[in-house]
Specification:
The structure holds two protein chains of two kinds. Chain A is built from 15 helices and eight strands. By secondary structure, chain A is an alpha/beta fold. Chain A has one domain: Rossmann fold, CATH 3.40.50. In chain A, strands 3-4-2-5-1-6-7-8 form an eight-stranded mixed beta sheet, with helices on both faces. In chain A, a hairpin with a 6-residue loop joins strand 3 and strand 4. In chain A, helix 1 packs across helix 15, helix 3 runs antiparallel to helix 4 and helix 7 runs antiparallel to helix 11. Chain B has a single domain, classed as P-loop containing nucleotide triphosphate hydrolases (Rossmann fold), CATH 3.40.50.300. In chain B, helix 1 crosses helix 12, helix 4 packs across helix 5 and helix 7 runs antiparallel to helix 8. The chains are: A alpha/beta, B alpha/beta. The interface between A and B is large, with 69 and 70 residues.
């Protein structure tokens, strides 16, 4: 079996995780490694550049040897999970159940679990040397790491046990005896046989509990072996979320390998902003150029402080990716972005 | 300025919707209104922008005339049962809400209606002149605002039905507003337009108004002059600003926002961001 390297690219929403994930995979593929990136909700033009009709099934990126891409499709993932882990008759019932659709579409842990499950499948397929996982932003990133445990809570939760009246469902009989009066009451309040329908659904879901528990353990093992990279920007809100994220990762025994600061400005701007602008004869142009440099220089200083504070506080290596006016939308632009990055070597992204 | 008493603020993750929510709340409070800022699903962002140390289900005053609260689902459910559905005191609500908790996690519309109910009850209560809601992101906003209608389809009759109708009435009232915040960038603008179009086709939710956030101002020097500048940070910074400005213009036109908020340079804390945005909103009217 190959030693598959996996990267989990994590962080809050809107910081450029998807682009950076794709960039890392593209750079590794260009260095002669079979690399796959799983993207979550990529920009349309980036998705187009990576391949037509992206879904859970990885496709080779046109004109890019060794580079593969996939796009997380939560509903399809869950259909596959149900077909795989539930008995055929249960699977048929579940797939047409409106509650199941609601769970697959909206439960944030369901999206995160789907991403984690896809990651595990790609690693186990032994097809790629490197698997790069862009993660759903829900919960500021932590949902992805909690997903395997949370699915157990949902499916085998105490409330369900109370509702179904048994550790293992002996189907209708048991829950009718213990919880029937409660159903009557709630249904009277709500005006329909809602709770009973939900209980039926949860009973079906519950038949997958044992199989999914075993699966969750395997997924957790894959998560613990992966290189976890946090992407952020130096802006106040992403910084706050990143600090919280570090704390939460500690609670689940994950130590991030490093942090990538996206949209970074050169520290030299901060120093230059304190010197006069030379070589510009028109005084009005000079004044405007100087004012502009001042505000961007101030921004560069603030960014540098934020990076230093985070790096020293959490003792992690920090890499930077320059602020690009346009998000990369082609593989060449992705490669150029990684080329312009600084410090990625310390993060285990040996490119 | 919006004259109603309830505003929902949504947007794609990371565009600054909590900051805009906080800024609107600060501005209204400065106008002398009694304001409640409410976090519907995630209150951490809003709390940071309003410098609230602790946020709970019961409103806490963070400054004169401005309070903050979060929606705790279990508490909201309890309130829904006791006050809104008027479940008799004799009924043991604890096991009942235990049972309903299962529903809240699974049944389409229930979780949303329990959460969306909270800001509406606060409006009904009459304690506030304005309730500003930091609402779920664009991907989920439709299922929250549309929850009363979903419930009416799901539950054939009874007090839940009646309750859902009252909630829907408030959501459709002209005194209820919806703001979608977007940055002038591809992902955010496309998602915002798509969401706005879908919401405008529905009669049961307020028509969204659009706010562009983090908009760069014009550099005031022509592109050719920038190109001619001597090499160095001054030129690089001018080039970056010019490029960012050019790149955003296309998406700003696509978005067609009614209000534009500037990119803020050199701010350190979420509290400063919200305070500055409030001042900008005040100046632009």
């Amino acid at each position: 079996m190959k030693r598959v390297r996996s990267f989990i690219v994590s962080g809050a929403g809107g910081v450029g995780k998807t682009t950076i994930s794709a960039g890392i995979a593209a750079a590794l593929a260009a260095a002669d490694t079979e690399a796959l990136v799983l993207t979550v909700d990529p920009a349309r033009r980036l998705a187009d550049a990576l391949g037509v009709d992206l879904g859970n099934e990885p496709v080779p990126v046109p004109g890019r040897p060794n580079l593969w891409a996939a796009m997380l499709d939560v509903t399809t993932s869950w259909e596959a999970i149900v077909h795989h882990y539930a008995a055929p008759d249960v699977a048929d019932r579940l797939l047409v159940n409106p509650f199941f659709r609601a769970i697959a579409d909206r439960f944030p842990a369901a999206q995160a679990f789907a991403a984690a499950e896809q990651m595990a499948e790609y690693i186990e397929s032994d097809h790629w040397d490197v698997v790069v996982i862009d993660t759903p932003p829900s919960g500021g990133g932590i949902d992805f790491f909690l997903a395997p445990g949370r699915m157990g809570d949902l499916i085998g939760g105490r409330l369900l046990m109370w509702l179904t009246g048994a550790r293992l469902p002996g189907r209708r009989l048991l829950y009718r005896i213990t919880a029937r009066p409660m159903f009557k009451l709630t249904d009277a309040v709500l005006g329909g046989p809602l709770l009973e329908d939900v209980a039926e659904f949860l009973l079906d879901l519950r038949t997958m509990y044992d199989a999914l528990s075993v699966r969750s353990k395997t997924i957790r093992r894959h998560l613990s072996r992966a290189t976890t990279i946090i992407v952020t920007t130096a802006d106040p809100t992403p910084m706050r979320e990143t600090r919280r994220f570090f704390q939460e990762l500690q609670d689940v025994d994950v130590s991030p390998t490093g942090v990538i600061f996206n949209r970074s400005l050169p520290p030299s701007w901060a120093r230059a902003a304190r010197r006069p602008v030379t070589g510009v004869s028109d005084p009005e142009v000079r004044a405007r150029v100087r004012d502009n440099l001042k505000r961007w220089g101030g921004e560069a200083r603030r960014q540098e402080d934020a990076r230093e504070e985070l790096a020293s506080h959490h003792a992690v290596p920090v890499a930077t990716i320059p602020w690009l006016p346009d998000a990369p939308t082609t593989v060449d632009e992705l490669l150029a972005m990684l080329e312009a990055a600084d410090g990625l070597g310390h993060l285990g992204v040996g490119i | 300025m919006f004259q109603g008493n309830l505003i929902f603020v949504s947007g794609k993750g990371g565009v600054g919707k909590s900051a805009v929510t906080a800024a609107l709340a600060i501005l209204a409070a400065r106008d002398g209104k009694r304001v409640l800022a409410l976090g519907l699903t995630d209150t951490a962002g809003l709390a940071g922008h309003l410098r609230a140390e602790r946020v709970g289900y019961e409103p806490t005053e963070v400054r004169r005339g401005l309070s903050i609260a979060s929606v705790d689902r279990a508490r909201a459910l309890d309130e829904y049962l006791k006050l809104q559905l008027r479940v008799p005191q004799a009924v043991p609500t604890k096991p009942l809400s235990n049972a309903l908790n299962v529903l809240v996690d699974t049944a389409p519309g229930i979780r949303e209606i329990v959460s969306i109910g909270k800001p509406i009850y606060e409006v009904w209560r009459g304690t506030w002149d304005l309730v500003v809601v930091d609402a779920p992101p664009t991907g989920q906003i439709e299922s929250y605002l549309g929850a009363p209608v979903t419930i009416r389809e799901l539950v054939p009759a009874g007090i839940v039905q009646d309750q859902a109708r009252s909630l829907a009435d408030t959501l459709q009232s002209p005194a209820t507003g919806l703001i979608l915040v977007s940055t002038p960038s591809e992902l955010s603008v496309l998602e915002t337009i798509e969401t706005a179009d879908r919401l405008r086709m529905r009669a049961d939710v307020p028509n969204p108004a659009l706010i562009a956030n983090r908009v760069f101002d014009e550099l005031g020097i022509s592109g050719e002059v920038v190109e001619e500048l001597p090499d160095g940070p001054a030129r690089d910074a001018a080039l970056l600003h010019e490029h960012l400005y050019q790149a955003q213009e296309h998406w700003l036109r696509e978005l067609g926002a009614s209000v534009e908020l500037p990119f803020l340079f050199g701010l350190l804390t979420p509290g400063e961001v919200a305070a500055r945005l409030a001042r900008v909103l005040e100046e632009t009217g």
